[in-house]
Amino acid sequence: MQDVEVETSNNDNNIVFGHVFYEFTPDCDGRVLVDIATGNFLFAIGKELNLNLN
Question: What are the CA-CA distances from residue 29 to residues 19, 44, 49, 51, 53 (Å)?
Fold first, then answer.
C-alpha cells in the first residue's frame, strides 16, 4: 500500500507519505501484520492491525 496525502488549511499542514508492506493473518480475520513500513507509517512495523473487513 502506498499513501500520499497533503492537506492544508489556514495554519495547519498535514502531510502523509509512506509505504506499507503487510500480510494477512493466517486466520483470515480482517487483520494484517505490518512487515515493512516507511514515512509516517514507520512505527507500525511489527504491529497487527484490524482493517475492519469482516
Answer: 23, 19, 11, 9, 8
9, amino acid identity: S
**30 band by pLDDT with thresholds 50, 70 and 90:** confident
pTM exceeds cut of 0.70? no
Give the chain's domain count: 1
Owning domain of residue 47: 18-54
Query: Does the pLDDT value for residue 9 go beyond 60?
Result: no
Q: Is residue 3 part of a domain?
A: no
